[in-house]
Amino acid sequence: MPKSPVTVIGLGPMGATMAETFLKNGHPTTVWNRTAAKAAPLVERGAVLAATPADALAASELVVVSQTDYTAMYDSLGGATDALKGRALVNLSSGSPDELRRAAEWAAQHGADLLTGGVMVPPPGIGQPGSYVFYSGPEDVLDRHRAALGELGDTTFVGADHGLAMLYYQAQLYLFWSTLTSYMHAIALLGTAGVSAEEFRPFAATTVSALAGDGPMGFLRILAETIDAGIHPGGANTLRMQAVGADHVVETSREAGVDTSGPTALRDLFWRAVDAGHGADGLSSVIEAIRAPAS
Ligand code: NDP
Q1: CB-facing half-sphere around the CA of 268: CA atoms within 13 A
Q2: Domain count within the chain
Q3: Which keywords belong to this entry (predicted)?
Q4: Which of the listed residues 112, 146, 161 is the one where a domain comes to its end?
Q5: Residue nearest to atom 39 of ligand 1 (CA)
Q6: Which of 95, 174, 176 is CA-nearest to residue 136?
Q7: Domain-located, residue 257
Q8: Atom of ligand 1 nearest to the CA of 14
Q9: Does 249 lie in the same domain as 191?
Q10: How far is the CA of 158 from the centre of ligand 1 (A)?
């Protein structure tokens, strides 16, 4: 059966890999990029380079956008809005949920359906096992194009609100970056005593995998259960004890001469929760300080 045509707008590392994946899977693929020269390797493999954004939109019902941000979409398609009518615009660029909701209204005003998405792998992961993309917006549009979009990664639909895909995406990115930044902080700290990153790695791996496990250190599960239940049992591990420990991480970082901003932010959050009355509660009570930002 012939594969459906696809248009890809934006040929950074991500968009170019997506276009390459569609080509490999046999889709007639049209591309457009602000810097047209980036299309050359794809044209060699059979892609059609559209002369204008309007031509790119005219070529396929399914239009995948992968650019730095949503401003880029308006810059690219703002002069071609007549050609948006009837398109399934699938924007996989980064943005904030409110930006995505405004973009959905903009697309609807021009007769297009916007499906928003957040890609959860780097470019080499596109189309590989384990790759997935959060989608939100009209599920029927996703269903209509699930076969083609599924070639990029698993299609994980999270809800009709257009902002949801980015809410999930930003939540995952924050988890990813803050975990790895803490890892780098630990490496820098130990490095002041001559310990290499590679020497420390097995200890870090034990902690990270234990957090996701079912054992006594399985804090992903433990916190999910207590937070969803709205209880913060302290037991032998009170937040006050841990806030004092967090003070020591700040002090140790200062003594070692490394940056203290990350540990200080964490310590301040712990103490704000203690000051709000959670000293005898457990670690999960920190969520209350996160939910009620300091004014
Ligand atoms: P970039 O974020 O650098 O996107 C580059 C693309 O955006 C290029 O096609 C560029 O055009 C275009 N662009 C930027 N500004 C404008 C503008 N004002 N008008 C027209 N086009 C513009 O690289 P990636 O490809 O890596 O990322 C694409 C999206 O995917 C981003 O939102 C990113 O957050 C997300 N993402 C990226 C991942 C990664 O590991 N790379 C992982 C998961 C998501 P030009 O070539 O002309 O400069």
Answers
A1: 8
A2: 2
A3: Oxidoreductase
A4: 161
A5: 122
A6: 95
A7: yes
A8: 25
A9: yes
A10: 23
90 lies in the same domain as 208: no
- Helix ranges (DSSP H) in 110-238: 139-149, 164-191, 197-211, 219-229
67 in contact with ligand 1, CB cutoff 6 A: yes
Which residue's structure tokens are 């034990």?
Answer: 206
Nearest atom of ligand 1 to the alpha carbon of 38: 46
Question: How far does residue 66's CA lie from ligand 1's centre (Å)?
Answer: 6
Q: Please state the atom number of ligand 1 nearest to the C-alpha of residue 15.
A: 25
Q: What is the Å distance from ligand 1's center to 68 Cα? A: 3
Pocket test for ligand 1, best of 67, 73, 76, 134 (most atoms within 8 A of CB): 67
If asked whether residues 93 and 151 sit together in one domain, one would say: yes
Residue 256 lies in a domain: yes
C-beta 131 within 6 A of ligand 1? no
Atom of ligand 1 nearest to the CA of 16: 25
pLDDT digits (tens, 9 = 90+) for 24-82: 999 999 999 999 999 999 999 999 999 999 999 999 999 999 999 999 999 999 999 99
For the whole model, what pTM was predicted?
Answer: 0.94
Read off φ and ψ for residue 2, nearest 5 degrees. -65, 140
Q: Tell me, yes or no, whether 192 and 131 share the same domain.
A: no
**Domain housing 50:** 6-161
Which structure tokens are listed for 31?
């591309």
Q: Which tokens sit at 49? A: 């380079």
Q: Is 233 in the pocket of ligand 1 (CB under 6 A)?
A: no
* Coil/strand/helix, residue 166: helix
Beta bridge partners, 134, equal 118, 156
* Distance (Å, whole) CA 58 – CA 86: 10
pLDDT in tens, 85-112: 999 999 999 999 999 999 999 999 999 9
Task: For residue 189, give both structure tokens.
Answer: 């700290």
Query: Do residue 186 and residue 54 come from a single domain?
Result: no
Q: Is residue 12 part of a domain?
A: yes
